[in-house]
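Each field is listed here:
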Amino acid sequence: MTGLLETYRVVDLTDGYGALASRVFAELGAEVLRIEFGGSGSGSGRRRSPVAVDGTSLHHAYRNAGKEILLLDGVDGAGNDVVERALAGADVVFVSGDRPRLPGTLEELGERHPHLVIVSLTPFGLTGPAAGWTATELVAQAMGGVVYRSGVPELPPVSAPGSFAEDVGALTGAMAAVIALYQGRPTGCGQVIDLSSVLALAQCTDMSLPLWSLFRMDQQRSGAGLYPLFECTDGLARIVLPMKPADWKALIVWLGSPPEWSGAGWDEPMLGTDERELVLERLARRFAAATREEITADGEAAGVRVTPVLTPSEILSNDHVIERETFSSFDLGALGTGEFMAGFFGVDGSRVAVAGPARLVLEIPDWEPRPAPDPLVDSGRPLEGVRVLEIGSGVAAPEAGRIFAEWGAEVIKLETHAHPDFQRMVMGGEMNPAFATVNRGKLSFGAELATTDGRDLVRALLPHVDVIFENNATGVLERLGLGWDEITSINPRIVLVDSQLYGNRGPWALRKGYGPSARAVGGLTWMWAHGPDDPRGVQTIHPDHLAGRLCALGAVAGMLRRDRTGRGSRIDVAQFEAVVGLLGDQLLAESLERGAAVPVGNVSAEHVPWNLYRCADENGVESWLALCATDDRQWLDICRIAGDRLVVEEHWSKAATRVRERVAIDEAVADWLRTCDAGTMEASLQAVGVGAGRALHPRLQATHPHFVARGYPVHLEQDGSGPLLVEGPCFTGSGFGEPLCNPAPEIGQHSGEICRRILGLGNPAIAVLTEVGALDSGKSGA
């Protein structure tokens, strides 16, 4: 099998932050050289937790699998020449900031190597008021909007496990890099990409900014919310509460259709509040009497979306995971055999994976320098000229389509009034902020797939299409006569990207679910808690948006291979594996030592204070501050800022003592901050280099100076909803231009235009197709 990126060369100059980006290139076949400075291999990135019993950083081991690593004492003289020669032959370089251990800035680096795509991965980006701020993973998650409503109301908000913000940023950076490579094909030109992982995470959390901009409601944490968890006889299982009236009816039937469940509240499309509580009570009893597998299989048979909550050890031994080859077993010497998450993609029915652990080399590869580019060709936005057909609903496939539309592609969304995108309908009517933000900038084509003529319209469109995104249940396209074999018989150059909960192959491939379902089976639900015995509950729809970015990344990589080989690809993005990939180091630790992967909440094993602390409420809304001290100097800076408001013990000046007395220090810091303004403390602490950040919700993100300066809140006039704030870009490209942000379409709004402009049909033929129900031309009837 030809790797999607096998002709590309990548240099990783990160200090460890964002190293997952270049690993994805290695998974897809690129040759990746990581250069580390310090000579002994003890440099930054090799000390990060989790660590094995011998002190090996599993954070480093997981994110650098598949790479060659060259150790240099430093960059000066000969070392500088080595790096420059490697960059002369590379296509992409990833760096952690504006100075990649080389003379000059990134722009000057680009001038020396104009063919090179240079990707800077930092928490805040290279511009904006917070560009120089100190960030930790907890600070990034807090400011990215993940933390403020995660957890149960009885406990403080709880951050996601692992390097959640860093890795979301890294995967988004990998996506930006392949888009830049695609744009550079005609000219050979590189560019500088500046990515903020905080903004990448904000984009990937949910649609909270546009929802807030319309309803002006501050969401609060309330546990699992619409995705409740229930105890079974052998652990937890999740149900996703219905989003459509028909699904509520199916759930009631599954619960036995109690005769007393009748009356006005039961007749409401989404049930009344009291009626929902009765349903939840009966669900708890139903789950309590069954094993997770029994309740999952029973629910699936009835069309009720139930998924087991798997622990790390259960993921590693799961039959579906094993058959999909989600993990690769690698020999780690004295540590034994470790299970490495193999890769985020399947291609043409097979797993694509890293080849093995990182391998030390003594010299750079023998790469021929890349040719000088031709900068005279104006390539426009990077995906101009690409046409996408989107056959999907919800978020994963539509988000991939939105990304393509944002950067210039023509994206045709397939839906009709008979079969609309459910996301469009969840709030009543046919437009709402959640649908609008994911579907902005697209064309709507109302070919009705339930009819023969409607399917023929889609077949007629296929020769004109580059990419298809779909996230229907496994097998749906095949049953419609639009499976991979038929698609490629019409257009062998198409790149088809499937995204299902469990992927398109394996024993559980036919089971259905949503983003919160993926969290449950991918280990994130179990790990996202203050401790192993603490309650769990997070309301975000993650990993839907992240899966959309992986779909977009895979599609562009597929187009790059198509341009080399002349043939398309079928790419499989399993949403649960998007979750597993973010927990790769934790699961590697679990494979080496059973019980090593456990929830730890907001705290750090190495540093204190390191937590979320409640500050003075703002207009009745809780206000929380992430505060992290990484060394003794920062602790002293905290004490100076607090003054006598922070009661401290003299022996707390040493890090080891603070770790031992974590509880007392947390109580003292909490007492100090309880009456402080979070925004004031964020600014004061960052001014002296202490990592601090408010737990931002959409109202604060909409006005935060850094978010505004980076262009994150974008105004959109949306028919059917009115003026909205939607999520702007989390990265800039020096050659990308400005991203497009146009309204989302009405159902069938562009049916006539697509039939005339692309399919060459005349108005009489369009009228006949509309009359027989094969074409939905929307309200305008165009």
User: Anything to note?
Assistant: Residues 544-565 form the longest helix (22 residues). The mean pLDDT is 95. The radius of gyration is 26 Å. The longest strand covers residues 610-618.
